[in-house]
Write a structure and sequence with these properties.
It contains 8 helices and 4 strands; from the N terminus they run αβααααααβββα. It has helices at residues 3-8, 35-40, 45-54, 56-62, 71-83, 85-97, 102-118, 168-171, and strands at residues 32-34, 126-130, 138-140, 146-150.
């Protein structure tokens, strides 16, 4: 279950004692952008530069593009990430473990539907996935307009690489479900 839903949907609506509002079909459309595909399929630094321009919110808030004296620093870091053979293995594995995110999209839509029921002005954030090189598991911007899920953390116990610095009791929580 995506982390967002653990906050909102803590059980089945048919469970005794749980009353949930009927949100019907009043759920926002949620599309999860697969940014890792664009980065790891890039053939040049120019393609990385174009990627950053096309994904301005991601570049600004997640990569903190404006904090560097020149954009080429971030371009080079992303290029090195994409060229790392170990991370390429993680990327390839992530595409096998997560070939389709429609289940997550539906779960986020349901969660956001409940939030909008109670907070009608709520605007769902843009949600992206990325292979971060075990840099970030889940990023939520301060304005709550961007969510980035580090797929490398959530590939499960059979993954070829796992975040070594995390204790096992935490790693057990990082699963594809």
């Amino acid at each position: 279950m995506p982390l967002c839903l653990q906050l909102v949907a803590c059980g089945d609506a048919s469970e005794e004692g749980i009353r949930r509002p009927d949100i019907g079909d009043n759920m926002p459309e949620v599309r999860i952008g697969r940014l890792e595909q664009e980065v790891f399929e890039a053939k040049s630094r120019d393609e990385i530069t174009a990627f950053l321009q096309e994904n301005e919110l991601f570049a600004k808030k997640f990569l903190r593009l404006g904090d560097y004296p020149h954009d080429s620093i971030v371009v080079n870091q992303l290029w090195q990430l994409a060229q790392n053979p170990h991370l390429d293995t993680v990327y390839q594995e992530s595409q096998q473990v997560f070939p389709d995110l429609s289940g997550w999209e539906q779960e986020f839509a349901t969660a956001f539907g409940y939030i909008q029921h109670y907070y009608p002005d709520f605007q769902p954030p843009q949600i992206y996935t990325m292979v971060t090189g075990f840099g970030t598991d889940l990023f939520i911007s301060d304005e709550m307009d961007l969510v980035v899920i580090g797929l490398d953390y959530f590939m499960g116990p059979q993954a070829p690489y796992r975040p070594a610095e995390l204790p096992q009791y935490i790693q057990r929580r990082y699963s594809p479900q």
